[in-house]
Design a protein that fits this description.
This is TetR family transcriptional regulator. This protein is mainly α and about 200 residues long. It has helices at about 5-30, 35-40, 45-50, 60, 65-75, 80-100, 100-115, 115-140, 150-170, 175-190. The protein is globular, with a radius of gyration of 19 Å. The model has no long low-confidence stretch (mean pLDDT about 90).
């Protein structure tokens, strides 16, 4: 089997596992989406599910987007404000995902808000995304990849956008997620507006 054919087969298997897990979780909740049930729905063996996704929660949280995010960040204009660079890259990624499959994004947000195991794993996967983006930002700003300020800044932006997604889910997914994301970045830039004094 050629490398290209092998890779396409792997991607089809990975996609089938994701579809199965999301279908079960949407209909019956995350606890019902056991490895065995996902395997049966995807028509693969349980060992195949585990081989592709050693951590079950990654089936609904990961989408192989980190390479693309890093490439997009590296392609931003050299003199651009780092916060605006991250705003552009992350909102583009979310907007593209919403356009491609809004129900998947809504399910992921509901699981993040309502399932402690998914939320805990999200913290770990967000940290890995943060490390990738921090490396790109360090290169753009002439700092070391493990520079404290770069790490804190990147983690703060990703953490804030995660909170925006949870806020969206906790309020029934009725608000405009893209508007919430821009509002979140604006808050990071300016801080929360204080109420007017009487």
């Amino acid at each position: 089997m050629s490398t290209g054919l092998r890779e396409r087969k792997k991607e089809r298997t990975r996609a089938a596992i994701r579809r199965a897990a999301r279908s079960i979780a949407a209909s019956h909740g995350w606890e019902a989406a056991t490895v065995e049930r996902i395997a049966a729905e995807a028509e693969v063996s349980p060992s195949t599910v585990v081989r592709y996704f050693p951590v079950r929660e990654d089936i609904v949280l990961t989408d192989d987007a980190d390479d693309r995010l890093e490439a997009l960040l590296r392609a931003r204009p050299a003199g651009e404000d780092p916060l605006e660079s991250l705003r552009a890259v992350l909102t583009e990624a979310v907007g593209t995902a919403l356009e491609a499959d809004p129900e998947e994004i809504r399910l992921r947000a509901r699981l993040m808000a309502g399932t402690p195991a998914v939320r805990a794993r999200l913290t770990e996967t967000t940290a890995e995304t943060g490390r990738r983006l921090a490396r790109a930002l360090a290169d753009r700003t002439g700092r070391a990849p493990d520079d404290l300020e770069v790490r804190v800044f990147t983690a703060a932006v990703l953490g804030a956008l995660r909170e925006a997604t949870l806020y969206w889910a906790e309020r029934g997914l009725t608000e405009d997620l893209m508007a919430l994301m821009h509002r979140t970045v604006d808050t990071l830039k300016a801080g929360p507006a204080l109420p007017a004094r009487p």
